[in-house]
Amino acid sequence: MADKNQNKAEPNVSEKTINLCIRRGLIFPSSEIHGAQGGFFDYGPAGVEIKRNLEAAWWKYFVRDREDMVGMDGAIISPAGVWKASGHVDSFNDPLVECKKCKKRFRADQLIEGALKINVDGMPLDKVQALMTEHKIVCPDDKGELSSIKSFNLMFKTYIGAVEDEKSESYLRPETAQLIFVDFKTVQTASRKQLPFGIAQIGKAFRNEISPRNFVFRCREFSQMEIEYFIHPNKLNECPYILSVIDDSLPICTAEMQGEGKNSDVVMVTIKDALQKKVIGTQWHAYWMATCINFFTSLGMKKENLRFRQHTKDELSHYSSETWDIEYNYPWGWKELMGLANRTDFDLKQHMKFSGKDLSLFDEEKKERIVPHVIEPSFGLDRLLFTILIDAYSEKVEEGETKTTLKLHPSLAPVRVAVFPLMKKDGLKEKAKEIYNSLKTHVPCDFDDAGSIGKRYARSDEIGITYCITVDYDTLKDDTVTIRDRDTTKQERIKISDILSKL
Predict the structure, then answer these.
(1) Which residues in 428-463 are b (16+ Cβ under 10 Å) and which e?
(2) Residue at which a domain ends, from 342, 357, 390
(3) Residue 361 belongs to a domain with what CATH number?
(4) Is residue 193 within 8 Å of residue 98, measured between CB atoms?
(5) Is residue 250 domain-shared with residue 356, that is, in the same domain?
(6) Which of 225, 257, 362, 455 has CB 3.0 to 4.6 Å from 379, enough for a Cys bridge?
(7) In what side-by-side order are the strands of the sheet with 69-71?
């Protein structure tokens, strides 16, 4: 008799990672007992530690370790004027279609992507509609006829105060970037930074996605880590740091390659060659591309799963002179992990125009006022965290049982070391507690005395705890413990006094 499950597809690594997140309470749907709304997620004990560690790693790498970067933290709700100036009120839209049969709503670009395997980001709505009509794309659920495409604005609108009128109209921010532009002059004055310099921010953003999908990859509420790096408009090719990355090799897929149908291809190009051949437009853009991919690999991400994809002319944002995405090779294909855009002076000039305030700087050398250009490295924190979990996910079979390990970089691990007493009796638990108490003020630490040692190792491996220390009867004799490495599973006997230096 045939196995009834033989035709079922084996779960891919993203599905297994999602299952692990929900099962172990790392990340899970928000307010589930009241019927969770799609696109909102909560972080449990281990998940929030990983998230905070990732924020800290990003802040240290891009802000604290640099002399040319400062931070800020802007408000989540802003008056409508901010978003009218930025263009979000008028043009922050997705193409919406509705099934005439089941009334479900979908993003037209996602339906085209699924059916035709092509990217239509940035394509005008009339061309997207033509593709829908030409290829007779129907509802994916019940094959019903779809409505014509309508523009759906992704902004969450609200009102400030007791009166709901045009003056009190406000929006939850769909990105953190605009607050940096609005506060540019204030921050520059307070920090006394001169060009070139950057302003960084980590915080929540909100987008009313038509169809959030792929777990936290595309949410309605999410966190961003963004930098706006301000450069003299005449000095985009005068990067003082370029020699530090000039020989770095980048995996890229150019607009030209995509025009030739090589959408999934990757070639390795050095920064030096890319600049000489005008593949990358400016030194500053090349520098930030190298800096960002080096950040990912510093967290242990596999470089072979990463590439830069250049935006084609059709998808390039109206404010951008050049944009590259760092993409990750997910089980559902190459998709954006972060974006690197040259936003020119668009945003500052728009806010000057709409507010009537001067956001220019005085150029002492030329004795004239200038409006800086901006390179924007933009990271989605939740998407990056999910991608790191996918990249770190590992399985092995021992004695017929599949065991899962999250091989997280030690700086991201929710707990650096877990302390286990071999038994709860004969003073082992008390000794283990003593060691735990001595360690917890120095490193993130956990204590677990429930179940067999094997089960405790497995629980720790699943959430990425880097080391496990076992206190046994020999510990009581010679003050030594067994320390186990998560990734190799090798165990070593060391003195209690040597634990911290070992970690």
Answers:
(1) bbebbeebbeebeeebbbbbbbeeebeebbbbbbbb
(2) 390
(3) 3.30.930.10
(4) no
(5) yes
(6) 225
(7) 69-71, 197-206, 221-231, 373-380, 333-344, 322-330, 306-310, 249-253, 267-270
Residues 64 and 188 in one domain: yes
Question: Which residue numbers in the chain have pLDDT < 50?
Answer: 1-8
Q: With contact defined as beta carbons under 8 Å apart, do 100 and 144 qualify? A: yes
What pLDDT does residue 75 have?
A: 97
pTM of the model: 0.90
Measured CA to CA, the distance from residue 419 to residue 94 in angstroms comes to 50
Cα separation, 207 vs 221, in Å, equals 7
SS3 353: helix
How many structural domains are present in the chain? Answer: 3
- The answer to whether residues 350 and 472 belong to one domain is no
CA nearest to 285, candidates 271, 295, 273: 271
Q: How far apart are CA 40 and CA 30, in angstroms?
A: 6
The structure tokens 């520059």 sit at 188
CA distance 481 to 469: 7
Q: Is the dihedral of CA 413, 414, 419, 424 positive or negative?
A: negative
The token duo for 140 is 């994916």
Angle value at C-alpha 204, between 405 and 93, nearest 5 degrees: 105
